[in-house]
Amino acid sequence: MARAGNTLTWFETGPTDGVEIERTTVASLAACDTATDFVRIATTDPDAESYIDAAVSRGVTYAYRVRAVRGADVSAYSNVACRTVPRPYCVKHPTATRCSTTP
Q1: Whole-structure pTM over 0.85, yes or no?
Q2: Does the 6-100 domain belong in CATH 3.30.9.100?
C-alpha cells in the first residue's frame, strides 16, 4: 500500500534563500479558509519548488501556507491549500484482501 503524504508545489517569482512551509489541521475542507495556528514544518533549499509532507495521518485534513525567504526579508503568505489524506479502502475476498487509497 502506498505511503500517505501531501505534496506541495509552488512557482517562484524571484530569487529566494528558501521557502518556509507551515501546516495546521482543520476539521474539514470547508474550514480551510478559516485555518489558524499554523506551525512551521520545514524551510526548503533555495532551488526547491516542491515539498512532500510525509508526517501526516490518514483521514486528517491539513491546511498549508508558504512564504519566500530572502535574507531577513519574507514575502506575504501564499493562499491556504487544504487536503484530506485518504483512508485506505479495503476489499475483502475469500482468498485475499486488496487495499488502496481510492475505492
Answers
A1: no
A2: no
